[in-house]
Amino acid sequence: MRIAWLLIVFILLLNCEDKQTKKKIKRQNTESSIEKTKVKKDSLENNSNEYPVLDGLKNAMEFFLVYDKKHKENKVRLTTDFGKIDILLYNETKFHRANFIYLTKRGYFDNTQFYRVIDNFIIQGGNSDDKKTARKRDAIGRYLLPTDTKRGFTHERGVISMPSGEIDNPYKLASPFEFFIIQQQGGSHFLDGDYTIFGKVINGMDVVDKIAAVKTDEADWPLRNVYIRKAEIIN
Description:
- This protein is an alpha+beta fold.
- The chain has helices at residues 2-50, 60-70, 94-105, 131-140, 205-212, and strands spanning 54-55, 75-80, 83-89, 112-118, 122-127, 141-142, 159-162, 179-182, 196-203, 227-233.
- The chain has two domains: 1-50; 60-233, Cyclophilin-like (Cyclophilin).
- 28% of the residues are buried.
């Protein structure tokens, strides 16, 4: 009888320990799940802070003021179907420099096109007939940049400037996703004062000339698409 009693006590102790162990494991799993949820939430919040959806009326200018102070890069390389174009961005036009750096880091320009080409005038890029480009714009936001035309820059051959937005836009606010490079010998000074010059080509004007020479349709769109395969920050 004593042996049987001891056996019963031993079994009860085992059951008790088993229940405590299960409770401990359950508590640990719950805590782990809560921590994972917190990490995931924090990650999403950080991403939201880093890449907010920009709205011209709400947060775009404030965002680029802060971005300009934290991101001082000023050189971008465009790898095109005809070769590489290196661009120096002017610090004087801080909104436009910061915007171009931001879009480059977001990968916006990758696989966009030079969609408007006029020989001995300009090549204009940053758009595409691919729906992916429109989706990229939606993810980044809808906004325009203020004109900044009194920095002493003129539309010399090789400068990079920003076209106006396509909406009703009497003040010629700049369309942030697009840009044009002056290819015309002697420059295109009739554009001075209307469009913001924010950089210049420092290497690759031969590539600009090759792109400018391609055949186009009546809307100045190249008959064979000319892609910007990649845009990247360089030193």
